[in-house]
Here is the input.
Amino acid sequence: MRITGLGHAGMFIETTGGSILCDPVIGPSFFGSWFPFPDNRGLDWERFGAADFLYISHRHRDHFDPRLLERYVRKDIRVLLPDYPTDDLETDLRALGYDNIVYTQAGVPLEYENGLTLMVTPLRAPSDGPIGDSSLSVDDGTASILNQNDSHPLDLEKLLSFSHPDAYFTQVSGAIWWPMVYDLPQDAKQNFAKLKRDAQNKRAMYYIDKVAAPHVFPMAGPPMFLREELFRYNGHGLEDDSIFTDQAQFLAHMAEASPQQKGYLFVPGTQVDLEGGEIRVTQTLYTEAEIERIFADKWEYLAEQRDSRQGEVRAEEARRSPVLAPDEMLAAIKEWWEPLLRRARTIRNGVGGNVRFRISELDMVVDFPKAKVREYAGEECVYWYTIPADLVSTNIADHEIDWSNSIFLSMQFSVGRAGKFNEFLTTFLKCLSRDRIEYVENWYAEQSDQTEDAEIGDWVVQRRCPHLRADLTKTGKIEDGVLTCSLHDWSWDLASGKCLTTQGHPIRSRRRTDTPAGADAEAPAETVARA
Here is the structure.
């Protein structure tokens, strides 16, 4: 088996039973904000586009690049479609002319000629990417790999029952806009950015430990920000207020945290040959000296990229839709969003207040409790956004149903909030279609926890995490009465059952009745209301 890095989360897998093109992206993505790091334009895209299979893990535009597909990838290619609850990805692919769809089943292996076996494992929770993220397992008899990319699977035992991977490819960098775009003091941004980077490293190491593959390749980031106003947020930021750990930085962290683990740089053109437990890694696009310079003199390299690629930034801006007048924009959003709000009872209750949007001359509020969109009139708000009007006008023209997959990941906006992070608000803004809203509302309704309890230390808690249903006996850690789930670093105060990370999502918890003498003397907690 041979795996060639294509940049970001992209790879080209050559097996005994055919080749697989995974998540190819040149970009720029998210309104011209994200470019693969390092530059991947020099790859032989014509060759990769002639693959036997195409696998797009999810709809995020740093994984799904329609312009690249139309230019390089043949229309009759077999498309491995993850088994998602809505058909948005299939609709997008068919709109591009890709009709040779292979409908995979969740966690069910597919067998092909010459010993090739594939398995796509989707995740379907509201916070899993754009209502869906997935991983790809590949075994051809000579080697086995797991391409986990951005996904955070919960049932690793089932995933790894496919086969034990010789090589493991996983996200280690950030893919979020927090805290960079938030209205926060600079020292708070720096603190939150460090906490976020630490949490990302912790999560990546958790998976690396559990997967226990002999060879690890960090991937799926970081992006390059080449727009002038975003350039300062590359890597850890010019002022240490960003979250985008690069491949070399993570490998250094892994070497310190787990010295026995073998890790390798995976950049555009990295070629990994696997057979019978043996591995050979070579670089085919960049020389070792060029790679050394890219990482050792990264800011100089990024500045060269910025200065030479402003034409791509301007070309993206030229493709945006004309800006709507404020009254037209308000009417369009009102007609689009209010019917969805009326269907989104759980989300409305979860947001629980007004959200303000300042869009150039339009100043509007979304009243979640009343399911109304109107002009802002001085109401108290729990969140407030400032967004360029051309981005919103383009999303209206395109009827973009996932604003996290467009405006938010572009980082070309700013936001403030009155309290903690509100997952319900973010979920609404990436579920702007009837199918998505109905799916998410049903998903929340099914989260009323009926599972068994489990003992963790001196506490008895519900076994499944209220966030994404991870098994807390495997992912939970308790310190000073606070339970933290290592998958996403969400925390709960066990005495009250209250989530410390966001609104809602309480946990059922109580003290063990047989707590040994000398243990923490907090009073036993009552069982809390189920989520």
